[in-house]
């Protein structure tokens, strides 16, 4: 039985994961059986390589599978057509031998022909000739052949790769008269149609691709709550931690939306780090809400290849960066339009998803990480509201508990002092940002916060703060009259029920000249609401 939670490309897949992979492999095989050529393009560390490796084993009784990885090709292999063709042929021959080939005389001759070409270093080997020999090999084989190429992004800046795709396309179109691969699968972050955009960024026909034969790949590779629960059940049968499987699987899904690496990493942290003596001291305590919160704190603080890749994209794509920052801090709804370049890129890299026709951050972990990034910028930390928080923060922690009422009282004072007279547009744009900026130094390193996605809109936002096992629900809204305010109070009461809390907090940005700024206590049924009027 497997003893870890590694499920992504840089790790060996464990048995818990493989149980849930079989259904996806069956769905992929249907595409292969139908002779489809397609691309598995998903964000970094989404389980693409793990899936391809498992797929190779899954297909071996029905097909000969040649599974290549362009990451093993150096930049020099793509410098010209001859070099690439020879490198591809060598790799193909080496990987073909891993299959248990039935070497008929015809297949021996076809393979020998390709091998002879490869051995002749002085030969000028063109793509056209390569595909003629590959067609002969496919024709002589007693089984259909499947070609899988991982990390096709490694070839993204090379025209020779587009020429290679054009040959695949030509043979696909003529396969009723020219034998070729049963199926070709390309895997990477970039949709292959976008590779030309990288090669010729100023070309009018940026999206015109030789890979327009590709079938849609709509198989969901994320984990569902049920799949996460099944993995935890397998783990629990080994370790008997006494965890509440339903609760932990729900938390994992709520924070990750099933992103394979994030699920894997949080579980690994609870299993291997938080259970140590210098943390919570046992697996039983590690696999609890307390342990989960600690894992979230750790993953938000650590450097890993996934986050480094994501942050790197923000520098490379300024429009994407601006869109994400606006989405997080203004709350303005952005219509999801796949033809918008920033939205298309953000989806491809895994930042966002289409949620009921609107742009939404892909998962809560990404959202929290982005908030931390933006709020920690030198521009943000130079703001007076941030400096005020640094001066105030020692007064907000009492016996290990967060005094949220006191935080709101001080925020109201500072906001009025610093931004008195600002117009409504300014507050709509900056109100949420400045409260989070004030809050961050107070809970940094100990607590976390996130925006409740059910209420992500301009008029009302719920901030959920987790601090040492306690939760605080804070509603921020623009004042739109007493009736709207009363509805907001009732809505907050409902959220408090959902979160099993008896006390909630409100921040109302009020432009009424007759308003009375301050912090007030309101009793609604059995709930206590602390409202701060700014």
Explain this structure.
- It contains 21 helices and 14 strands.
- It is of the alpha/beta class and 534 residues long.
- The strands form four sheets. The protein has a six-stranded mixed sheet with strand order 9-10-11-12-14-13, with helices on both faces. A four-stranded parallel sheet has the order 1-4-3-2.
- The relative contact order is 0.07.
- Mean pLDDT is 87; it is low at 7-19, 199-207 and 455-459.
Produce a short descriptive summary.
The chain has 534 residues and is α/β, with parallel strands linked by helices. The protein has helices at residues 15-33, 48-59, 81-96, 105-119, 127-140, 159-173, 195-199, 225-239, 245-256, 260-274, 283-286, 289-301, 305-316, 318-330, 341-348, 364-375, 378-381, 384-392, 404-419, 424-443, 482-498, and strands at residues 38-41, 64-69, 145-150, 183-188, 352-355, 358-361, 397-398, 401-402, 447-451, 460-467, 470-478, 503-509, 518-524, 527-533.
Radius of gyration: 28 Å
How many angstroms does the end-to-end distance come to? 58 Å
- Discrete helix count: 21
Number of strands: 14
What composes the largest sheet? Answer: 6 strands, mixed
Quote the beta fraction. Answer: 5-15%
In the sheet with the most strands, the strands line up as 9-10-11-12-14-13
| Shape, principal axes of CA atoms | elongated
What ranges have pLDDT less than 50 throughout 5 or more consecutive residues? 7-19, 199-207, 455-459
Which structural class fits the helix and strand makeup? alpha/beta
Q: How much helix, percentage-wise, in residues?
A: 40-55%
